[in-house]
Amino acid sequence: MKLFVDTGSIKDIEAVAALGILDGVTTNPSLLAKEPGDFRQNLKRICDIVKGPVSGEVTATDVAGMLRQGREIAKIDDHMVVKVPLTRDGIRACKTLSGEGIRVNVTLVFSAAQAILAAKAGATFVSPFVGRLDDIATNGMDLIREIVDIYDNYEFATEVLVASCRHPIHIVEAARMGADICTCPPAVIDQMFNHPLTSIGLEKFLADWEKSQAARV
Ligand code: G3P
């Protein structure tokens, strides 16, 4: 399973990339709005750090505007992926941009029916939002299972990019279901490292080692 980081923060992306486990980056208008400077330059810097897919989202809501913005985003760097919302215009833009060889990530997906539309429109990635479904007392991971099953039935090439991940259990469940990618905030990637037995075990190994060395002096 591939692991993407969901942030617009260059500092956070550099920190996760330094771990050597990062496969790509997703951003959205809310995340990029928090960062100073020009968003195109920020996306270019992200592409220079991470040699994997980097999603940048259109803010136009009509098909002509999405196509114009999508083509501009795609020109920023070869690693750029154009993110469009799951609307009628978004699906039309996905079909056209994909036909031009531009990779598209269809976002704001909350049902299996929507995921079928994204695959049929030639999306490279589909982004179901699990955390936001959990927030409204609907199991987000049930949606991932449905989409993975449906895509397998028809061998759709669209990759399932699990978004709105809130904790490591989302990532583990997504991996067990065979989802292709999880995108997570940097804090959730940090949480993946933590286990109290790892910390206690390391502390004991080092204490035993120091004791044995002191006894040899
Ligand atoms: O980037 C899309 C998605 O991951 C947003 O997550 O936490 O705002 O629901 P969240």
Short descriptors:
217 residues, alpha/beta, TIM Barrel, 8-stranded parallel barrel, 11 helices, globular, binds SN-glycerol-3-phosphate
- Could you tell me the CATH topology label: TIM Barrel
Described by its quaternary structure, the protein is single chain
Number of helices: 11
**What portion of residues belong to β-strands?**
15-25%
**CATH class bucket:** Alpha Beta
Q: What ranges have pLDDT less than 50 throughout 5 or more consecutive residues?
A: none
CATH architecture: Alpha-Beta Barrel
Strands, count: 8
Q: Strand order across the biggest sheet?
A: 1-2-3-4-5-6-7-8
Helix percent reads 40-55%
**Major beta-sheet overview:** 8 strands, parallel, barrel
Spell out the helices and strands N to C.
EHEHHEHEHEHEHHEHEHH
Quick take:
It contains eleven helices and eight strands. With 217 residues, it is an alpha/beta fold.
Would you mind describing this structure in some detail?
The structure is a single chain. The protein has 217 residues and is α/β, with parallel strands linked by helices. It has a single domain, classed as Aldolase class I (TIM Barrel, Alpha-Beta Barrel), CATH 3.20.20. It is 55% helix and 17% strand. An 8-stranded parallel beta barrel has the order 1-2-3-4-5-6-7-8, surrounded by 7 helices. Helix 1 packs parallel to helix 3, helix 6 runs parallel beside helix 8 and helix 8 packs parallel to helix 9. The structure holds SN-glycerol-3-phosphate. SN-glycerol-3-phosphate binds next to helix 7.
